């Protein structure tokens, strides 16, 4: 029985892409601003539970660390996780497409992808497949003992499933951030809730969609569990057959956040000189959001904008120059008392 599907999405057009571009969505969340300090997500593994991935796409070569097929496609061959729908490849490209001077660039172009095919060619699947994929991601270890840090799911269904909820809780308990699409049943009103699971579970990071003008996409679900919003209208990314396509949906917003988390994990761990926990990384994500002016039921904490915290620090410093002067005087006084005579 098929009881979960891809969250509906719209393929705007399939395009050819030669010269490399940084997609507008990647720029809107300010990913390039933090590429250097985050090492572009290098070493962070994102598990993508979707329709599979075109592992031969030029922009995804070297990004896929492993994969598995949980569906009946390809005669249930577990080793064949090739995308036969297009959706999964698009999601993977938004997260981690290479910086290779061709095609498009993902949010975290050095992150690694664990591709878990849990939806069939027609975009449908069983909750059991999704649950098994989540548990597999939690238990997976890479060739160099890598572990999954983020699970990305652009899928959903209308009913709660206790087994899937349990698997998600287990993932979070194992320090894995779970990112889910809010759904595309929105009616354009923020006071009428639309629910989709697993997105509506409190433990996940539920993602709504905005357009490039930072307006809530009319199709984006609204409810009290929305955490953040990200670009989800006319998003260009990788597609089957080595091509590229523009798609719209909260399915497209979700991988922007999954990639953003890969960057924040590296950036934050480096700053604090330790591995931050799942709640701590979530706090860093929320710290790097800006409101779009809509109710929380539509935008949650706001649009992900990865340079926000640093901009705020600079503004505070500029508004309080006296504090900087006091710090400089204290350092000078300490140096005068403690440095050997004759030393500068």
UniProtKB/TrEMBL annotation:
<dbReference type="InterPro" id="IPR034202">
    <property type="entry name" value="Subtilisin_Carlsberg-like"/>
</dbReference>
<keyword id="KW-0645">Protease</keyword>
<feature type="active site" description="Charge relay system">
    <location>
        <position position="251"/>
    </location>
</feature>
<comment type="similarity">
    <text>Belongs to the peptidase S8 family.</text>
</comment>
<dbReference type="InterPro" id="IPR023828">
    <property type="entry name" value="Peptidase_S8_Ser-AS"/>
</dbReference>
<dbReference type="InterPro" id="IPR050131">
    <property type="entry name" value="Peptidase_S8_subtilisin-like"/>
</dbReference>
<keyword id="KW-0720">Serine protease</keyword>
<keyword id="KW-0479">Metal-binding</keyword>
<feature type="active site" description="Charge relay system">
    <location>
        <position position="50"/>
    </location>
</feature>
<dbReference type="InterPro" id="IPR000209">
    <property type="entry name" value="Peptidase_S8/S53_dom"/>
</dbReference>
<feature type="domain" description="Peptidase S8/S53">
    <location>
        <begin position="41"/>
        <end position="291"/>
    </location>
</feature>
<keyword id="KW-0378">Hydrolase</keyword>
<feature type="active site" description="Charge relay system">
    <location>
        <position position="87"/>
    </location>
</feature>
<dbReference type="InterPro" id="IPR023827">
    <property type="entry name" value="Peptidase_S8_Asp-AS"/>
</dbReference>
<dbReference type="InterPro" id="IPR036852">
    <property type="entry name" value="Peptidase_S8/S53_dom_sf"/>
</dbReference>
<dbReference type="InterPro" id="IPR022398">
    <property type="entry name" value="Peptidase_S8_His-AS"/>
</dbReference>
<dbReference type="Pfam" id="PF00082">
    <property type="entry name" value="Peptidase_S8"/>
</dbReference>
<protein>
    <submittedName>
        <fullName>S8 family peptidase</fullName>
    </submittedName>
</protein>
<dbReference type="InterPro" id="IPR015500">
    <property type="entry name" value="Peptidase_S8_subtilisin-rel"/>
</dbReference>
């Amino acid at each position: 029985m098929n009881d979960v599907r891809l969250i509906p999405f719209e393929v705007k057009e399939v395009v050819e892409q030669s010269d490399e571009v940084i997609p507008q969505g990647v720029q809107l969340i300010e990913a390039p601003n933090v590429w250097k300090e985050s090492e572009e997500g290098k070493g962070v593994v994102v598990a993508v539970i979707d329709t599979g991935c075109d592992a031969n796409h030029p922009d995804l070569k070297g990004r896929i660390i492993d994969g598995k097929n949980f569906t009946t496609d390809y005669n249930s061959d577990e080793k064949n996780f090739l995308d036969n729908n297009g959706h999964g490849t698009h999601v993977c490209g938004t997260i981690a497409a290479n910086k290779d001077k061709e095609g498009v660039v993902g949010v975290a172009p050095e992150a690694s992808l664990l591709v878990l095919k849990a939806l069939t060619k027609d975009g449908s699947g069983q909750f059991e497949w999704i649950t098994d994929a989540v548990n597999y991601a939690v238990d997976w270890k890479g060739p160099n003992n890598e572990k999954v840090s983020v699970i990305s799911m652009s899928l959903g269904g209308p009913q709660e499933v206790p087994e899937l909820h349990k698997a998600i809780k287990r993932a979070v308990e194992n320090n894995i951030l779970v990112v889910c699409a809010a759904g595309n049943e929105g009616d354009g009103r923020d006071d009428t809730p639309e629910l989709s699971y697993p997105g509506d579970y409190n433990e996940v990071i539920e993602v709504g969609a905005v357009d490039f003008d930072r307006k809530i996409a009319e199709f984006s679900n609204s409810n009290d569990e929305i955490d953040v919003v990200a670009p989800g209208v006319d998003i260009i990314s990788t597609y089957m057959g080595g091509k590229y396509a523009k798609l719209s949906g909260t399915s497209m917003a979700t991988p922007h956040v999954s990639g953003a988390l890969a960057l924040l994990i590296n950036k934050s761990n480096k700053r604090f000189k330790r591995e931050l926990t799942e709640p701590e990384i979530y706090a860093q994500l929320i710290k790097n959001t800006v409101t779009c002016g809509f109710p929380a039921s539509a935008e949650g904490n706001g649009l992900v904008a990865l340079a926000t915290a640093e901009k705020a620090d600079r503004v505070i410093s500029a508004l309080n120059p006296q504090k900087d002067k006091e710090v400089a005087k204290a350092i000078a006084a300490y140096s005068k008392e403690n440095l050997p005579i004759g030393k500068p």
